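At this stage, I needed to go through a protein sequence along with its fold in token form, as given directly below:
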Amino acid sequence: MFIKQISIFLENTRGSLRALTELLGRNGVDLLAVSIADTQSFGILRCVVRGPEVGRAVQLLKEAGHSTRVNDVLCVAVEDRPAGLADVLAILDDNDIFIDYTYSFVRGRDKQALIILKLSDPSRALELFEKSGVGVLSQSEVDAL
């Protein structure tokens, strides 16, 4: 139930994000979800692409001189209502699972917000989500969006 996320070290210079997205786009890699954390001199772009595109995307990025890393993350379906996310986060908090980072998914589905979570104990979180009825999308479900 984990999905692949690509993290890319990106210089914080004019046009660097554009060049990266153009490179992927010209090569048919569709960004499904994107998050950027930055400082004055660099940023880390985290993105989700379709599973079959991960290897090609990483190869393209490395050939263009980018440092990349692929991580397993969870994509959870959160009821799109006030406190929907808080209810999911309570499961993690009550079980001492820490959030490394989170960001929302570009494409939603049926009154649900899709949230990417990088967690301290993703396997345990997955078990807890399944017991609590929290929807967790597989890579193939993400690919179908």
Summary: DSSP finds five helices and seven strands in the chain.
